[in-house]
Write a structure and sequence with these properties.
51% of the residues lie in helices and 10% in strands.
């Protein structure tokens, strides 16, 4: 069954993906609206006739109604919605989340149960569902009453939302918006009070006081009354600059994604693939997974008005991997949630509720496993999740529908392009043969290339030295070097796979089969295949054919050095 979205907060429409469902003429839309307002509840035939026709019910009204219901059923064939006959009438069975009116009310209920930025985010999402006048273009007495009631509700919600924004210190952005609203509703005293407060907190005390006297004059002329006591009280507080009306500290939406690397080459296709609800970027250490994710995040920052969340899950760092519970606590605090439950399941549920409907980017960097990531997935929301990992995270793809992008090593032309960006084209082209050899020895890994370029005045300077991984360490920051990056992938291996990795480094050829792995480790063929699968999932070998595995030069060098140590780590 296909998903369907119903829209009542504007023209009455139905959509399946990016395709508009053909609903027919206006009267048929009236029948649909009459059912959708009370979705999943029985509406009698008499009620439908009254709602859709009012006093102008045709002579064969019931037959006409049955025809319209039949046509609507045909329009929704194959979609997640049914119009069923029930005792006493008809019911339109549909997920309430598929109807913008009911989604509007659900978001409001959640917003009223929360506080701070989390509450405002709900209100923002609720207001954004409106596309104009509700039930636009349709008119019967019942529909007109519903439209008028919804318009009043919407106006009240807008004022509640203004109070929230004022409480969060967002007064400066409200002044122009409230000035226009006061012109449209000149006698609304709550609105005038909000306008006065926004002006005062924006450093415009004289204008705030003038706004009070203008309201007082309009009320006297139109109604012969004075402003309400709470408006008069605010006027007095503004006059004496009382602490109660001082501006709170402004709260901003989270923008946690760190700055990316300045040079990124050869990743245009991968950048185009990102942007799905959940994308997993996997690949060997140093291949540029985090660089790709942060670059995409900065390129598309404007697509996420509700902010960006970021966490380094430390899956392959010197420290222990970060528990999902700790990551959730950090996210919830960044979102303005003050009461955080103790358990990971409760935190995950609250996190999903807080992000529901928000257009936010979540970047989960350096993940160790699918189990670590799964509690951090927002569920149904309007944003994007990016995950980076050295593991394939097969469970996240299979169970959670994540889209996996395997990031390969740079080609020789791409490696040279990166060296040109860092070292300068003149220096690279003057020693092109040395640059090509350096690119080969760095195995097309952006991390190794950047470290090498940073340490080399000329490409030839590191060609000879690159036979030792120490030449690819960062002076004063060994944790950022290539050896450190490789070591944490190795340390994450179970002992039998680590033993095979070390022995592969001593093998004279870069290519291996399950048979050669079995001979190197003294295990049977099925066990050797399982160990190779572990190394492949960790991107410590690459599978080039059904029984062919390759280890790139830097990994072979690291494995060989490990195998030469008296007691390998």
């Amino acid at each position: 069954m296909g998903e369907v979205e119903f829209r009542l907060l504007g023209a009455v429409e139905a959509w399946s993906g990016d395709r508009a469902v053909q609903l027919g003429h206006g009267r048929r839309r009236c029948v649909l609206a009459a059912l959708l307002v009370d979705a999943n509840q029985v509406v009698s035939a008499d009620q439908l006739l009254d709602r859709a026709w009012g006093h102008g019910v045709p002579r064969q009204g019931r037959n006409t109604l049955y025809t319209y219901l039949s046509r609507l059923r045909q329009a929704f064939r194959g979609l997640d919605v049914t119009i069923a006959r029930r005792s006493g009438g008809y019911v339109l069975d549909v997920d309430p989340e598929a109807v913008d009116l009911h989604r509007f009310h659900r978001l409001l209920a959640q917003g009223r149960a929360e506080a701070g930025p989390a509450s405002l985010a709900r209100y923002d999402r609720a207001v954004a569902l409106w596309r104009g006048e509700a039930l636009a273009g349709l008119s019967t007495p019942w529909l007109d009453n519903v439209r008028e009631s919804l318009a009043k509700e919407r106006f009240g919600v807008e004022l509640d939302r203004v109070d929230l924004r004022l409480s969060l210190g967002l007064h400066a952005e409200l002044v122009t918006e409230l000035a226009a609203a006061v012109r449209e509703h000149p006698l609304d005293e709550r609105l005038a009070r909000q306008f006065m407060l926004a002006l005062y907190r924006s450093g415009r005390q004289a204008e705030a006081l003038a706004a009070y006297w203008e309201l007082r004059d309009r009320l006297a002329e139109a109604l012969g009354v004075d402003p309400l006591p709470e408006v008069q009280r605010l006027h007095g507080e503004l006059l004496r600059q009382a602490p109660e009306v001082a501006s709170p500290v402004e709260v901003r939406r989270p923008a946690q994604v760190p700055g990316g690397v300045p040079h990124l080459v050869g990743r245009a296709e991968a950048l185009r693939e990102l942007g799905r609800p959940v994308s997993v970027i996997v690949g060997t250490c140093g291949v540029g997974k985090s660089a790709l994710a942060t670059r995409w995040a900065h390129l598309h920052s404007g697509d996420f008005p509700d902010g960006q969340l970021y966490v380094n899950l430390r899956g392959y760092d010197a420290a222990e991997p970060m528990p999902a519970s700790a990551a959730l606590e950090g996210f919830l605090r960044a979102l303005g949630v003050e009461r955080i439950p103790p358990g990971v399941d409760e935190r995950s549920a609250l996190y999903r509720s807080t992000l529901a409907g928000l257009k936010m980017l979540v970047l989960l960097d350096n993940a160790r496993s699918a189990d670590q990531v799964r509690p951090l997935l927002p569920g149904r929301h309007g944003g994007v999740v990016l995950v980076t990992s050295r593991d394939d995270l097969a469970g996240l793809v299979a169970r959670d529908g994540a889209h996996r992008i395997t990031l390969g090593r740079l080609t020789e032309p791409e490696s040279l392009a990166l060296l040109r960006q860092v070292l300068g084209a003149d220096r690279v082209d003057a020693e092109l043969a040395a640059a090509v050899e350096l690119a080969r020895r760095c195995a097309g890994l952006p991390l190794a290339l950047r470290v090498a370029a940073d340490r080399a005045a000329r490409p030839a300077d590191l060609v000879a030295a690159s036979a030792d991984l120490d030449a690819l360490d960062v002076p004063g920051d060994p944790a950022s070097g290539v050896r450190s990056a490789l070591s944490w992938s190795y340390r994450a291996l179970p002992p039998p796979a680590a033993r095979l990795f070390r022995r592969l480094g001593r093998h004279p050829a870069p290519e291996h089969s399950a048979g050669s792995a079995a001979a190197l480790t003294g295990v049977d063929l099925p066990a050797a295949r399982r160990l190779l699968d572990v190394l492949r999932a960790a991107h410590l070998v690459e599978q080039t054919a059904p029984d062919r595995f390759v280890m790139h030069d830097l990994l072979r060098l690291y494995a060989r050095q490990l195998g030469a140590e008296p007691r390998p780590i």
